[in-house]
Description:
Strand content of chain B: 5-15%
Strand content of chain A: 15-25%
Largest interface: A-B, 13 and 13 residues
Number of helices of chain B: 7
Number of strands of chain A: 35
Distance between the termini of chain B: 28 Å
Radius of gyration of chain A: 28 Å
Helix content of chain A: 25-40%
CATH class of the largest domain in chain B: Alpha Beta
Radius of gyration of chain B: 17 Å
Strand order of the largest sheet of chain B: 2-1-3-4
Strand order of the largest sheet of chain A: 14-13-24-23-22-15-16
Order of helices and strands of chain B: HHHHEHHEEEH
Helix content of chain B: 40-55%
Shape of chain A: globular
Largest sheet of chain A: 7 strands, mixed
Oligomer: heterodimer
Number of domains of chain B: 2
Bound molecules: iron/sulfur cluster, FE2/S2 (inorganic) cluster
CATH topology of the largest domain in chain B: Glutaredoxin
CATH superfamily of one domain in chain A: Dimethylsulfoxide Reductase, domain 2
Amino acid sequence: MAKMAKIIIDGKTYEVDSSKNLLETILSLKLNLQYFCWHPAMGSVGACRQCAVKKYRDENDKAGKLFMACMEPVVDGMRVSIEDPEAKEFRAGVIEWLMTNHPHDCPVCDEGGECHLQDMTLMSGHNYRRFRYKKRTYRNQYLGPFLHHEMNRCIQCYRCVRFYRDYAGGDDLNVFGVHSSVYFGRHEDGVLENEFAGNLVEVCPTGVFTDNTLFQHYTRKWDLTSAPSVCVHCGVGCNTLAGERYGKLRRILTRYNGQVNGYFLCDRGRFGYEFVNSEKRIRKPMLRLSGENRLSEADEETAITEISAIIKSSRKVMGIGSPRASLEANFTLRSLVSERNFYWGVPEQEFSLLTKEMNILRQGSIRTPSLREIEKCDVVVILGEDLTNTAPMIALAVRQSVRQVPVQSATPYKIPHWQDAAVRELVQDEKGPVFVATPYATKLDSVARTFRGSADEIARLGYAIAGAISSDAPKADNLNEEVCVLSESISKALNKAERPLIIAGQSLKSEAIVNAAANIAYAMRKAGKNVELCYTVPECNSMGMVMMGGKALDQAFHAVEKEAMDTLIIMENDLFRRDEKQAVDRFLKRFKNIIVLDYIENATTERATAIIPVGSFAESDGTFVNNEGRAQRFYQVFVPNKEIKESWRWVRNIMVTSGMKEFSRWKNLLDYTQALIKEMPYFTGIDTITPPPGFRIAGRKIPREPYRYSGRTAMHADKTVHEPKPPEDVDSPMSFTMEGYRGQPPSSLIPFFWSPGWNSAQAINKYQIEVGGPLHGGDPGKRLIEPLPNAKPSYFTDVPKAFAPREGEWMLVPVYHIFGSDELSVHSPGVRELVPKPYIMLSPDDAARLQVTSDSELELGIGGQVERLPVKINLGLRPGLAGYPVTLPGMSVVRFPVSVKISGVKK
Amino acid sequence: MDFKFTEENLSRIESVRKKYPDSKAALMPVLYIAQEQNGYITREVMDEVALVLGIKAVDVLGVATFYTMYHTSPVGKYHLQVCTNVSCMLKGGYEMLEETVKKLGIGVNEVTPDGKFSIEEVECMGSCGTAPMMAVNNDYFENLTKEKLNEILDSLK
Ligand code: SF4
Ligand code: SF4
Ligand code: FES
């Protein structure tokens, strides 16, 4: 329980938490006070002098003194005034001189209308500028496809460098110069290297760093129609706000969730959205009319009738679901084809590894932390995951956990932990124990002790750690000295930890790694220690998929070999990304009809005999389950052309038309969700993570548009002079208009953050119970996986053998790319620019042996095929291993584990 | 223009580096060595410093542009730093500065066409007791008067 203190602010007494600083406390009380340099996730540095308040010694002190609220600890009996005239004048003065060189160009500034500087200026009362001299001006830099740079607008709060360098671990952005001409940028033009750089859009309080993807199709922020959404670009499930205007998705912002992503997103999640606007979008149903070879456009009714007829006349219909589709979508397809004929479109290997992860978390009495809780862990062991590229926000969380141990050294000096500058000065470069075991060098290495090896060697290290912790855990034999020493020191660190965490996943396609991670946790448990276990998953609903359970793609392949089926329905899944081309080809050839529901053209839609245009995340409602087992609801942002509907709605309409009349009672999403729960009680409760569609506050819906929304009577005037009726939303209590309840909606229904006087993302303060804490009403989402407290886990025993390189053969290891490995985000022009070209990764020794240097071409023999790829040399890779970027555009799909022959290309 | 440290300076850098726990900490003395060799610090010089120390160019740029004692544009063979901070100001620091400007025919932060002199107005140099003062490169000239100033300037070849 936090220590409480009574403080008096402007004559009123409040009871507050004494571990916070005064600024946080004031904001938590929902009082208004200006600030710039303080950020809830980054603490105080007292740099901008904006948050001045009067502090009085005692009740007799009438004069008081000015103090910076962000630098003042809360003390019992404290008396302060925000409203004191001198304090107010000081704050207005500070803002005036912070802005002496500011161009006052709000009308042409991308930040305008959502600008913390505008808000603070207004709040301070400063309105006339007295500075009459020439302003200093800067040349802006090219910083890559994501961020726009406009240095003249800088007010020198230093938030950008603090976020970029201190929080996110970037090292190519810095501050230059001195006095009135400080400059925040790179040492020369170039793409910002950090994967979290996009957060500067929200971190910078002015328009210096703005979203360049929004700039490409700019619209004023108050003109956006927005809805709460969930990121679809990996399995972490960060919460987002997605905004649309004129039928185009315009941008993604962070949707604060105190349990998941907090204030931030990764750049894949923030800038990957543009696939929704892609030219490759499927917008109309396409059918193959009888006697024709090509597909041609059809209207909705024809499509439903035709497809229903196909289904009715088919003897057997097989359905293929997808981990990038919602629970409801998959469930509806499963209802159409029956459980027996429903398969997940992912390879057996992935499916069973993910199932295993889920089972371990469910039964093992080991808790899995939320993303925010990872930040609080003090010792982290990462087995086989290149987190920055497979689960980016987990990597950012680990960067915070690195600070947990060193920050404790501030306590004896009585330095509160929010005193960021002081604590960093004290801590210097000291880092808490983090261990990264991966085949190749990764970005997190800079904060970790590393181990390099094949998947098996990493698993052996895991087993060795477990063995060192508890003597009854199965041990790996023939360990070399490196592993012995390392596993000793890791086990020592784990034993000392207060809140240790093991992170693993299926990225290296190794069951042994998943098992070894569990064994470490089990060993800790046996030794009576506290421990948590986090598994990454590849896609936004991978965890939902294995919770639903069922059969994988390999079984579908087998099924058609055994028995003839005539119709295949594939939903939101490009099978050619899932397995080797020949295997998928052979499979598809077995069907007469291939009906594909998807939103973007891909190799699978090319093979379809009928295509149904379904909504992407921005045009659908549904539920995803993230790696933590948290069920989260995402909402439709806008209604595109009427043929684009949620997969589940299309499938249900087809079912009803083809005679399965009982499904006509599924009317809105809630009906689907409840039907799902009935059949799979494991999902109990996901229907109540958000209010039902009939929910109203004071009889009103929650508006997706802010009340500042403009142009609605004119925006369609080129088509009709009548204002079109806004679309109805039967699936949620939200409207597609600006009318409705103006106060704060329930936490799962927040379409934008706004509060009177607070137009920027900083309005989040007003939505939280206390600054940085949960949203009012609790953070949205429901954890579906809680361990069984009395479970007696038993150790896994599949200790792999040591890896012995074979002459002339290389073992391939999968390599991941934040920009490139994800199916959807590569359709966004910005992300596309950063996707690497196909390549093969070799160790320096092997490159020397093959007499190749970076970028020279190699020939790769995989299962009878020969591929030519340029080389990239990775200093961490062990000889005998070769890195193969998976699902990167232009690379083939291979089944791991696989060994290949590599040779230089003869000139 | 290509900048490379001389062999001698490289070994000086090596010994400077040993004094500190990491290379980043050695940045300031190494920048001085670079300035001594090159007269002023260009982007090429910064890149070379980054390379030699194994640190990021962005960090070198940050430090080099923060401290006014590092020159990022050419200065004269004799770089005159005239103090006009409080003590010097009271004892005639501004007159000294004006006299220098008049005598050399250039403004503050400018270099004579022959490259011999440059003038900089500086804040306290820690010589208040002997104000007014001026530094010529690394040497201090104190208790200045106009005559003394002219004498000094005349003596510099
Ligand atoms: S660029 Fe933005 S975040 Fe950085 S110092 Fe300037 S105003 Fe602050
Ligand atoms: S970490 Fe994953 S879920 Fe979160 S923003 Fe990035 S891609 Fe999206
Ligand atoms: S917010 Fe307190 S000094 Fe900047």
